[in-house]
Design brief:
heterotrimer; A mainly alpha (about 280); B mainly alpha (about 270); C alpha+beta (about 350); A: about 280 residues; MetI-like fold; disordered N terminus; B: about 270 residues; mainly alpha; about 75% helix
């Protein structure tokens, strides 16, 4: 046994070479954030400085993009999980199995059809004369078309739609791990369905919900294409800001500093979410 | 929430919510297919007829066909590579114990937690410093770096579910480590390999945030071409491209279902 | 805890069908107040289906479930007032032992002070007061089982349902808990239904045992009667009777028939009306066969010993009667006579335990 494992560990080598390559790339890029801007498109042209970080942190517009990225990602993630919970419940527990299978099929096809497809479709659907507004006005729900494009609502809808399959896939595992007899025990002890759901099912599901939240939140933070297409330059998330600094301003050190600040705040916010989640789990039990 | 509850009010409410969510999920997918057959340049309701103009436009477009060639070539290079590197790596991560394993795992899986844009821009800056010109090589390398963690994650999940005693039994019966791997481990990894290849293949075709940094006009890939087209033109040609991708994903799902039941193969 | 006011349970024509499959067919059953009845049978016999219908987790296809004469078959499970101990206990993982036990009282809006008193009493009853603040994951299997029991009885239910309550425990622990469970049930006087596939557990715990097969009750009897006199081939086989023989009735009178084992006649008392010449089956437990010398004066059949196994308290003889294999047991005490392999002996069958099985 010892001999076997001694040799099989070397199987990791090719992947490790690739891993070290990407870590080197991250490090190299991060390092450039500590150097002053040189001619457009250059790295390490100027002298060492913290000036880039000062620029990232001091400008109000930068703070606004950073905070709105974090906050919007969180809100969108929570809404997505709210939508995903009933789907996962039905997939795992519906009496008629074909209903669950049908939902799984819809998720799989949507998931595999890719982000560009869906971003484009939402762009047409959510237009002022798009299907959604047409439906809303002709049903008399609203008088005038709602503006979905070039603001957070359209970006949020499309990101939530992108996150939904990830959320459902993760939650299915959590729901499947629930032992139905625990809920039956609550029922036999006199709890109604609603009471059982809130006092037994949800607390037992909580760890799974938190794992899902962290997963979809980190995917949401990285959103790039959706704000780019549906935000039309009005809604920008951090990824767009980094891109613009690379390709519009050709200021690599500034882009690097933005990325470093973004990563640090992302990790801190994820840590914060996990921390609060643990507290909530403790409080519930 | 028990099975019989799905006949109750509570169950009906849950099912209704799930149905609404499914409609929300499918709406853009179905709509874009419908839109691709629109006879008009702009969306109109009800549809004014039926036209293959945008499909013809897509399949005759120099831009899209060149991008499709690049995309598929890249996906067909990256997918097998991610398996050839990913399978041994997952095996080592799951089956053997060594010092620094946790850190090595973190290093290899780091693109999973770092946003794609940061990965793309970092790769671009390192590659250009190393003098690698933007082209198919850089693109494939970038995509491999990005997709490998997904492949390793799917394969490790599969490996974790395998009983190591089966391998010990093979060794006990006289099979060497290499023979054991090919005769015993690999056949049991079928669902993980399938999940990993589907995921990497689709990600390679669809990824925007890496490829936007690592492509130029001659190595343009589908998502980048689509983005530029959407910015410059206002007609449903991209809907035709989307339809092609949706048809492809339906075929993939049908294939997975046929081979092993897609529910099982999609536990990513 | 004081003795509970105990209820009666009656199942009338209870039926459960899934599509075309009948899991339970026209089941009739009476459980007298305060007694423990066991549904015993192999997996798939319908015993769990019956239990889940009584608890309210499965809809009844037809028939009635009467508690104290009132039909509850359409009452929601949370209004049934039935305590249940689940397989693998189904404790609430996110609650302490005390909150687990208090849950049913909370649902019944029992005042806080009374809750505390009753939870303590229930935990005292199962000797777990010192673990009240632990979570289920910190308890051993036996402790979890006792929490599940306390949680089920603290609400003073009309019935107690036990679904393989000791199935997940290892053998030694199981025997200790069997005794505890039985004492507790007797002491509380609570009408109980136990579901198990373990015949030893059923024989030890039950006042009555219903052996189920294919959604029906094959035999309902007291443990001793069931053990000594299984009435059908299924029951005899399920209870591990090795000697089951196919034969033909040679002659019959009002209260006995004569059959043959090998070529030798055997008298079997019965009140079944079996005409001469008809096919039949008989069973007898090895311990009801006396192995004697060939020249023994009693009525018996001649057999040859093929092998002998001394197993702890008993000696097992494998014998042959004209090619038919039969097993006999003798107690392994110093005074008992020893026989040798190949020896011809006389097997004396206890007539009151030689059973003509029903078809």
């Amino acid at each position: 046994m010892a001999q076997t494992s001694d040799r099989s560990k070397y199987l990791i080598s090719p992947a490790l070479v690739i891993g070290l390559f990407i870590v080197a790339a991250y490090g190299y890029f991060a390092l450039s954030s500590f150097f002053a801007k040189g001619p457009p498109g250059t790295q390490f042209a100027g002298g060492p400085t913290f000036d880039n970080y000062w620029r990232v942190l001091s400008f109000g517009s930068n703070q606004e993009v950073l905070l709105s990225t974090l906050w919007a990602s969180f809100v969108i993630s929570v809404i997505t999980i709210g939508v995903a919970v009933p789907m996962a419940m039905v997939i795992v527990r519906a009496k008629r199995e074909w209903i669950g299978n049908l939902i799984m099929l819809a998720i799989a096809v949507t998931f595999l059809s890719g982000g560009v497809t869906r971003a484009y479709s939402w762009l047409i659907l959510l237009g002022n004369k798009g299907l959604i507004n047409l439906g809303l006005t002709s049903l008399g729900i609203v008088d005038a078309p709602i503006r979905f494009l070039y603001n957070w609502s359209g970006v949020g809808i499309s990101i939530a739609h992108y996150l939904l399959p990830f959320a459902v896939f993760t939650l299915i595992g959590a729901v499947r791990n629930l032992n139905p007899s625990v809920e039956e025990a609550a029922r036999s002890l006199g709890a109604s369905r609603t009471t059982t759901f809130w006092r037994i099912t949800m607390p037992m599901l909580l760890p799974g919900l938190m794992v899902t939240l962290v997963l979809v939140y980190s995917i949401a933070l990285a959103s790039f294409l959706f704000p780019m297409l549906l935000g039309g330059g009005k809604v920008r998330m951090i990824a767009n800001q980094i891109y613009d600094r690379m390709f519009v301003e050709y200021d690599i050190p500034y882009a690097a500093a933005t990325a470093v600040v973004f990563l640090i705040s992302a990790f801190v916010s994820i840590w914060l979410i996990s921390f609060v989640a643990k507290k909530i789990e403790k409080a519930v039990s | 929430m028990f099975r019989r509850d799905f006949e109750s009010k509570f169950g009906i409410a849950v099912t209704a919510l799930a149905t609404l969510a499914t409609i929300f999920l499918l709406l853009p997918v179905l709509f874009v297919v419908l839109h691709s057959f629109s006879p008009t340049r702009y969306f109109q309701w009800p549809p004014q007829g039926f036209s293959l103009e945008w499909h013809q436009n897509f399949y005759n477009s120099e831009l899209f066909m060149g991008a499709a060639r690049n995309s598929f070539l890249m996906a067909l290079i990256v997918t097998p590579l991610s398996l050839v590197i990913g399978i041994p790596a997952s095996y080592a991560l799951v089956r053997s114990q060594f010092r620094g394993k946790a850190i090595i795992q973190q290093i290899i899986l780091s693109p999973l937690i770092i946003p794609g844009v940061v990965t793309g821009v970092s790769l671009l800056s390192l590659l250009s410093t190393m003098g690698v010109r933007i082209g198919l090589f850089g693109l494939c390398l970038g995509m491999l770096v990005f997709a490998l963690p997904f492949s390793i994650r799917a394969l490790s999940a599969n490996l974790l579910g395998l009983d190591p005693r089966i391998e010990e039994a093979a060794r006990n019966l006289g099979a060497g480590p290499v023979r054991t791997f090919f005769a015993i481990v690999l056949p049991q990894l079928k669902s993980g390999i399938l999940a990993a290849s589907v995921f990497v293949f689709v990600e390679a075709l669809d990824n925007f945030s890496i490829s936007v940094f690592l492509t130029n006009d001659s190595t343009k890939v589908l998502p980048v071409a689509a983005y530029q087209y959407i910015k410059d033109f206002d007609d449903p040609t991209v809907a035709a491209m989307a339809t092609a991708l949706i048809v492809m994903s339906v075929i993939i799902v049908a294939f997975l279902e046929k081979v092993m039941g897609f529910q099982k193969s999609l536990r990513l | 805890m004081e003795t509970l006011k105990s209820s009666t349970l009656q199942l009338a024509q209870l039926t459960k069908t899934y599509h075309s499959f009948e899991a339970v067919r026209d089941l009739d059953l009476n459980v007298p107040s305060g007694s423990l009845l066991t549904l015993l049978g192999p997996s798939g016999c319908g015993k769990s289906t019956v239990l889940r219908m009584i608890a309210g987790f499965l809809n009844v296809t037809s028939g009635q479930i009467l508690v104290d004469g009132k039909d509850i078959s359409h009452v929601e499970p949370n209004f049934r007032d039935i305590g249940m101990v689940f397989q693998n206990y189904a404790l609430f993982p996110h609650m302490t032992v005390a909150s687990n036990v208090a849950f049913g009282l909370k649902m019944r809006r029992v005042p806080k002070e009374e809750q505390a008193v009753r939870v303590r009493e229930a935990l005292e009853m199962v000797q777990l007061t010192h673990l009240a603040d632990r979570h289920p994951s910190q308890l051993s299997g036996g402790q979890q089982q006792r929490v599940a029991l306390a949680r089920a009885v603290v609400i003073k239910p009309k019935l107690l349902l036990l679904d393989e309550p000791l199935g997940a425990l290892d053998r030694n622990l199981r025997e200790g808990l069997q005794a505890e469970l039985r004492d507790l049930q007797r002491q509380l006087g609570i009408t109980s239904i136990l579901v198990t596939h373990d015949q030893d557990e059923a024989l030890y715990l039950s006042d009555y045992i219903a052996v189920m097969n294919g959604g029906r009750i094959e035999q309902l009897d007291t443990p001793i009667a069931l053990y000594d006199r299984p009435q059908t081939e299924f029951v005899a086989r399920f209870l591990g009777v090795p000697n089951i023989f196919s034969s033909k009735v040679v002659s019959s009178t009002a209260n006995e028939v004569v059959i043959t084992l090998g070529n030798q006649p055997v008298v079997v008392p019965t009140n079944q009306n079996k005409p001469a010449g008809s096919e039949c089956k008989v069973s007898i437990r090895p311990s009801h066969i006396d192995v004697a010398r060939a020249e023994d004066p009693r009525q018996g059949i001649t057999a040859t010993i093929q092998s002998i196994h001394e197993l702890g308290e008993r000696i097992v003889y494998h014998c042959a009667i004209d090619g038919l294999k039969i097993e006999a047991n003798a107690p392994r005490i110093s005074s008992s006579e020893r026989f040798a392999t190949g020896q011809v002996v006389k097997l004396v069958l206890d007539p009151s335990h030689t059973i003509l099985l029903r078809d």
